[in-house]
Amino acid sequence: MRFAPFVARRYLKAKRKQAFIGVISLVTTLGIILGVAALNIGLSVHNGMRSAFLRSLIGSTGLLTVTHIDWSEPGFDSADLEAIAQVLDEVRSVEAISFQVSEWSLITRGQQMVAPAQVKGIVPDQESKVNESLGHFVLGQLEELERSDLERPGIVLGYDLAGKLGVTQGDMVRLMVPKIASPSLTMRAGNLKQKAFEVVGIFRTGSSDLDQMSAYVLIESFMSLMGTDRIGQIQIKLKDIRTLDATKTYLRSHPDMPVSARVIDLRDINAGLLHALTLEKWGTTLIISLIMMIVALNMVSALIMLSMEKHRDIGIMKAMGASRRMILGVFVRHGMTLSVIGTFLGTALGVGLSIWADRTQLLKLDSDVYEVLNYLPFEVHSIEVAAVAIGSLLIAFSASIYPAFQAANLDPVEALRYE
User: Fold this and answer.
1) Quick one: which of 55, 69, 200, 291 is 20 to 30 A from 408 by CA?
2) What was the pLDDT predicted at 411?
3) 258 and 85 Cβ atoms separated by less than 8 Å
4) Mean pLDDT of all residues in 190-203
């Protein structure tokens, strides 16, 4: 057996008179276990929350959106739509598309009940394939929009919006859209377009922001009300979210895409919130990493005390021909052994608890507060687990260097003078 591993292993088995050093080594190992486990659990919670947030956005807004950016002619004409449709037919990652016309409007019932809402004109068959959140209806169905009378066109409302207006299926509401005739108000005045609609359905997504601000009507009815024949935007659902960046880049650079078309995704729309989640994640990582720094200081003190306690052994070994490198290897090996044991057990504990808590939905949440969640999700990323383990080992290695050099530089004459 090699010299350094043999001596390091003997030092790990502290005798009775060195029991205090053994206690410090045990505390150091427990600190590494708790630090690594806490860091893995914290990262998995942030990953789970971020994924749940992204899934809620994907289900309500689609993955990619093609919007019109020319204010002089808002919306895509038939030629633009044909060009975009031909480009999308070439993209294998596209699963479904949906045409939309969207405007912020006022919905009223009688003279007292008024609520603002984002009203979207849609094609029900298309929208149901792209917008998964519209699959949860409390009353009626999305298909009722196509069955409604032209004289009494239908509208479906979010659950909270219907409650604010005090309406249910079969009630009549009035949709009022303030339409600005020109981007410059000094050139031409705007007008107010309005029409009566019958409530044919009420949906509930679980997100109060969507349920209190969303309403859908048949696209032909909305275009007729707005007096336009242009489509405001196209939503694209992909077969696999992993193709998001490649598909967006391809569409943006495609020569046949209209100049007025802008391709964006949910990260562009919610960039501020996603950036805040990322900062929170790294902030939590930094705070928990301080535990590892404290453990590293504890390891430094443990190895220094060990070298002081073993100064006689070091002197004897150097007098018998042990090189400086051998002594250095003994104490680095001692520190790294504690780190490897702690890192392995901490990784197993953190990853195991995260997977178990997610599968059993251990931590329940109030759905009225967190809306799209009824339990705290955990999501383990193997790359992050590996990064935490490597970081722990590097910190432990760095903490072992100084005590190991102190022991290796010990003069054997001084070590044995008073023995």
Assistant:
1) 291
2) 61
3) no
4) 86
The closest of 74, 82, 83 to 101, measured between CA atoms, is: 74
Average confidence (pLDDT) over 122-137: 85
Q: What is the DSSP letter of 239?
A: S
**DSSP helix/strand/coil, 259:** coil
Question: Tens digits of per-residue pLDDT, 244-299?
Answer: 888 999 999 999 998 888 998 877 877 777 788 788 888 888 888 887 888 888 77
Q: At residue 122, what are phi and psi to the nearest 5 degrees?
A: -135, 165
- Pair of tokens at residue 375: 């339990």
Q: Strands 191-203 and 261-265, how do they pair?
A: unpaired
Beta strands in 180-266 (DSSP E): 191-203, 214-218, 233-238, 261-265
Query: Within a 10 A sphere around the Cβ of 140, how many other Cβ atoms?
Result: 19
Residue bearing the bigger pLDDT, 410 or 166: 166
Residue 261 tokens, joined: 């078309």
Angle at 31 between CA 282 and CA 405, to 5 degrees: 100
Q: Which residue has the tokens 């045990």?
A: 26
Q: Which residues are bridge partners to 115 per DSSP?
A: 107
Give the residue among 103, 43, 15 at the shortest CA–CA distance from 351: 43
H/E segment holding residue 189: none
Average pLDDT over residues 70-91: 85
- Give CB contacts under 8 A, 24+ apart, made by 335-338: 335/299, 335/303, 335/396, 335/397, 335/399, 335/400, 335/403, 335/404, 336/393, 336/396, 336/397, 336/400, 337/8, 337/9, 337/12, 338/12, 338/25, 338/28, 338/29, 338/32, 338/299, 338/396
Residue 217: count other Cβ atoms within 10 Å of its Cβ: 25
Q: Which one, of 247, 224, 245, 403, lies nearest residue 330 by Cα?
A: 403
Whole-model pTM: value is 0.71
In SS3 terms, 290-320 reads as: HHHHHHHHHHHHHHHHHHHHCHHHHHHHHHC
Q: 354 or 297, which is more confident?
A: 354
Other C-beta atoms within 10 Å of 27: how many?
14
Q: Which of 144-153, 231-240, 262-271 is predicted most confidently?
A: 231-240
What are the tens digits of pLDDT across the range 301-339? 777 777 776 666 666 666 666 666 777 777 788 788 888
Cβ contact 142:214 at 8 Å: no
HEC assignment per residue over 166-178? CCCCCCEEEEEEE
